[in-house]
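Fig. S4 source data, part A: sequence.
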Amino acid sequence: MAAKPTREELEQRIEALEKEAKKLAQTEKELIKSKAMFKAVVESLPFDVFVVDPDGRYVFQNSICKKNWGDLIGKSLENLPVDKKIKYLWMDNNRRALSGQTVTSEVVYDRLDGGKNFYHNIIAPICDGKKILGIVGVLVDISDLKQAEGLLRESEERFRNLTEITSDWIWEVDKNGFYTYVSPKIQDILGYEPEEIFGKTPFDLMSPDEAYRVSKIFNTIAASQKPFDCLENINLHKDGHPVVLETSGIPSFGSDGEFCGYRGIDRDISKRKEAEGLLRESGSKLSAMLSSVGDHMSMVDKNLNIIWGNEIAGKIFGNDIIGKKCYEVYHKRTEPCEPYPCITLRAFQDGKIHEHDTQVIDQDGKTIFFHCTANVALRDKEGKPTAVLEISRDITEKVRAEKALHKAKNELERRVKKRTRALEVQTKGLEEINTAMNVLLKKRQEDKTEVEDNVMTNVIKLVAPYFEKIKKTKLDDQQEGFLSIIELNLNEIISPFTRQMSLKYLNLTPTEIRIANLIRHGSSSKKIAELMNVSPRTIETHRKNIRRKIGLQGQRGNLRSHLLSRR
């Protein structure tokens, strides 16, 4: 008895299933493109085309089919608006097609308006090389042809009505295989008049290789004197182009029971074969696309058996994965991820699309990162999932780029923090320097104030007393004027007004400061001009400049009053 899997093994299986399911989702996108190509081809056909799954449900129909029969997707034959006889015929045709046969038939459909529609029905199996996946059907409306045949039957002899106006070529050969009767339809099919065919065998209308192939089959049948049905053969039209016929026949016997030959019909299936060829080509293209797509893809049934895988899956996990359990193939090479059922199981359970990222070790031991998607691909007649498509896209480069980006981001943040710390240290040093400078400036201001006080004190104590002594001596007017100016200017040097004027009105020139001091003490422009040995006009110009610089330009305020207010 097999040992119960450990939790780690279960998680590995779950992770692998989730990985494969994500691959399927990506493949579904590519499959949609292929389906679009297939649909474009089928939509261009001038007759009804449909596909039925093994459970008898319609899974595809072209627009002409939908127009004629309504929306059939998801429905079965029982839902078609036709009588039981037609249903039973079509159900039998489907059964035969699902067994591997290509079946043709004609049916008459009674319309609601009382008229009739005639259809030529062709059913063929869809195979993947191992099993039948469904059937494809072609329904050709031959109502117009039947109506024409009805008109012909009215003008033809009664005994020829059933043989010579049918869409098929009716014939009769003797026991040696020579034609003894040919319906006029041969002219439409092969271009010959019936009279041209009498005395020939069917093999005379074929190429040598085809005649050799078909004669071996027909001779075996004729030797058994049994009926045969739907024997495909290629005939040559009178103008040389090939025509594919489907031949059916029954043996004829005389009244004495002696074998006389065969009677049968040949049906031109060239268009049907062309349609089948188009379908095969579309299927081949789809298969090639699925095989060459760059993502890992596989189909898993409800028992978790792998029923299909593309070349990428084979390259990663081996070419012998078909038929194996997906968790035995994928999960044993998948590192554990989140501890919940794998996305493949979840897709089977709820029928929804599931995806996640996972890490896989391939056959060569190389680590690969995948974005995995699981999506339901097939359902049974009850709508329950029967197969899940798993798609995994290689995101290794993306993951590596993200890791590199994350590493670079962390390095940048580290450098920013380091630089921030350095700037904080520098800022702290600058703050300390600024504090020291403020202390020095304050000390410098205190020293300056002390010097000014010392100068003022020395002038008052050492110079001022001598002015009084000079004034008591005999001086002429000019000497008194100069003495007055010296005394005035000396007072102004030690006066707070001079310091305020120098600081507040830094834009005054030294000459303008001297004149402002004289104006403040009441000297007229004429007297100031005599003292400074300049013209009164020059003094007036200086007065205007002083008014402008201290903000009195254009005002009526007295300059001396304004200067006195600045003490």
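Fig. S4 source data, part B ends here. Residues 35 and 249 are 39 Å apart (CA to CA).
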